[in-house]
Specification:
alpha+beta; binds zinc ion; 8-stranded mixed sheet
Length: 312
């Protein structure tokens, strides 16, 4: 099979209080917690994964919630906006829901011909609900209060804020196979036709902006999706040839990862579809148990005692 970047795999952000983070994403937004694990480099911190019904790549937003995290600052050199796809006609439902739950949201508007509603999570992470022009047939997770006719389907795009968009666009186009689709003002929309959804990267060019500070309420990195490790290795070589430093393959239990910093300063990851979230839990059970990587299994009791309590 041809080696392709298959859009976004996941986005990882930093949060403060774990309970507040969990409640917001599962209860207010109605996403499914598809995995509850720990930060592999710091097992006293959770790593939450929120996604759609099957935990499909391109729907996964993950958090490291640190109860005492300082507040970060959205700014240049990071991913500054996450756009979620929602069904046509659902924005009124969401606006009412945001009112009921005291969610900080802005005025509904339109960009690239698509309606959106901007809002923030409790840590100030910037998100949008968007009604895409394209068809989105991904299967959403349903809750008591949020049914499929309004439920979030997964990512539509992620936006990067950069001083100069050209070098990063070079990586997207020459290595990852994206094309410039449209431009509105200082906003450049890149898209890959390798997949139908989660296929868009927007670059907001902001030459006078301030640098972001990576802490609570900001994104840590964005991961692009590849089918398997062969495909990942293919891209690793291309990235090395282009002169970037890239890590070796890292086992993240649910996928394999490579990381490199793109020229605009954003941390990019390349993550595989395999082995996926059903590696250690069935589809029905996803997210119901605390899963630990093998190296911490022997310390489970201690880790469970040290992790903040989480009420479901
Ligand atoms: Zn990642």
């Amino acid at each position: 099979m041809e080696n392709k970047i298959l859009g976004l795999h996941h986005i990882t952000a930093i949060a403060g209080d774990p309970q507040r983070n969990y409640d917001f994403y599962t209860k207010v937004l109605g996403l499914r917690m598809v995995k509850k694990t720990v930060n592999f480099d710091d097992p006293q911190t959770y790593h939450f994964y929120f996604g759609n019904k099957t935990g499909f790549p391109g729907t996964i937003l993950t958090f490291f919630p640190w109860p005492r995290a300082k507040k970060g600052k959205n700014g240049v050199g990071m991913a500054t906006e996450i756009g979620y796809s929602v069904p046509e006609g659902s924005l009124n439902f969401w606006q009412k829901r945001f009112d009921q739950h005291g969610v900080n949201y802005g005025k509904a508007s339109e960009e690239f011909g698509e309606k959106f509603l901007p809002f923030e999570d409790p840590d100030g992470l910037k998100l949008k609900l968007i009604v895409p022009k394209s068809v989105d047939s991904r299967e959403a997770w349903e809750t008591e209060e949020i049914k499929a006719d309004v439920a979030i389907k997964g990512f539509h795009y992620v936006a990067l804020s950069l001083y100069n968009q050209a070098p990063t666009a070079g990586v997207l186009m020459n290595i990852f196979g994206y094309k410039l689709k449209e431009q509105e003002g200082n906003r450049f929309r890149y898209i890959t036709d390798a997949v139908e959804n989660a296929s868009i990267i927007d670059i907001i060019e902001d030459p006078a902006g301030e640098r972001g500070v990576n802490a609570a309420g900001t994104n840590h990195h964005i991961a692009f999706r590849v089918k398997d490790e062969d495909s990942q290795e293919y891209f690793r070589k291309k990235i090395v040839e282009a002169g970037f430093n890239i890590t070796g393959k890292i086992d993240r239990d649910y996928f394999y990862s490579l990381y490199f910093r793109e020229p605009g300063g954003v941390l990019f990851e390349i993550a595989t579809d395999n082995p996926g979230f059903t590696r250690d839990e069935s589809l029905e059970e996803l997210g119901s148990n605390l899963k630990l990587p093998e190296q911490y299994e022997a310390s489970r009791e201690r880790i469970e005692r040290l992790l903040p309590k989480l009420n479901r």
